[in-house]
Amino acid sequence: MHWPLENVPGQCVYESRIKLEGNKVLASARILNQREDKTKYPVRNSELPAVYSNGTYYRLFTYTGDEPFTNDSLTLVPKRHVKPGKFPWSRFQATEGWAALVNEDGIGMAVYSPHTERFLGGFTGEEGTGSTFDIPCGYICPVGDIVLDHNIDFSYEYVIVTGMLEDIRKDVYDLKGKYRKHLPVFDFDGGRQGWYYKNAKDGGWPIEGMLNIHPLGDECTLWGPEHSYQSGEIKEIEIVAAIESDAGYFQFLWNRIEGPEKTEQNSLDIDILPGTGFNTYRIDTGELPGFTGLITGIRLDFSDVKPTDRIKIASIEFR
Questions:
Q1: What's this model's pTM, rounded to 2 decimal places?
Q2: Does domain 185-318 have CATH number 3.40.50.1380?
Q3: Which residue of 13, 108, 181, 289 pairs with 102 in a disulfide if CB–CB is 3.0 to 4.6 A?
């Protein structure tokens, strides 16, 4: 059923698989859309998933710094004090991919996501009181930007880890090796792999070995998933693309954290190679000013394009 509507069924099949393994809940979710409306709607924020706690689990901890997986100091995310009806949750990038709600004794649960480090979280109501049917509650939500085509087969995974806060973090460190590649290789074999667009659309589902991008105006942006990687481990980024446009160049942009705060966005202009076939664009990150610290997200910007242009991305590989 559609969550915000009354007795309106969704034209889809939804699967949820849950496995209990010690102090962990290993979960996956899948949607198979069968929507009669074939409109290509733009990307939307999606909860991957939304997890709530009782009122006694009100202290929200995560890691947001530039040295993930080194047992660096955690961050206590303060409760937002807002007027009734206003958005109560905090936004943050959890650079270890998890956040936890614990009680006064440091016991509680964490949500780990292998897909995104963009999180919402917080607490609403009176801290430290209440049970299942009471208003006070905590909230943790890994956030993804998802295009839900009329016929998409989309799935994601997450893990809920329970215990003492310090033990939860140790378990998450072990989970990283199971769920995350050391450096990403986006080959778009069978899916968008976390990429999404602004002012553009692709050829629709299924995604078969490339992103086939159609600009919807004179500018468009391709956003990568919000994951972080140490700049010193990345020697080169290779983009294999066929860009049919007279634009002349496109931009490679990256965010980073250096010290306690995110820095201003950096960019590199890349000349578009001639021809309609696929070309390989290699970025030597060692020669790239500002490619330092913890890289927390990348994107590609295209300007002076036309709706008749085509941007075909076969792969983006970190090396």
A1: 0.93
A2: no
A3: 108
